[in-house]
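Please think about what follows:
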Amino acid sequence: MSHSDSVSKADYEVLAEFRYTLRRFLHFSEAAAAKLGLSAQQHQALLAIKGFPGREQVTVGELAERLQIRHHSAVGLADRLEVQKLIERTPGTSDRRKVYLSLTPQGLSLLESLSALHHEELQRLIPQLRSLITRIDHRSTEETRTRV
């Protein structure tokens, strides 16, 4: 049996609905950021900095990795955020070649506003996402059972 034979119309429908729901959330996120004068990527950068595991600052390389962009693109993004006074650069203490990016109070205030809006939108979408994930998981469970 080929791979395409194992995917049913119902599978395509749930995957399409899941993708559509994610896209609606991303569209909401882009619009919310734009209302506050930020691009979606700038918002993602602020969130990546504040949400970095274990600390409140990141290197440009870490930001690039989190956003899945090239290092030089992360440098340009950091430059623009610094001009807007949303982040600041701090040289590393042990290695002066490393530069850390952290949020300014203004950057944190913008991120807090956006995060509150995103939390509300996610609360609205959670029942639908839960249902879709359950349907996807159910399909995976059935596939595993039929192989055994």
About this structure: The mean pLDDT is 91. The longest strand covers residues 87-91. The chain has five helices and three strands. The CA atoms of residues 90 and 100 lie 5 Å apart.
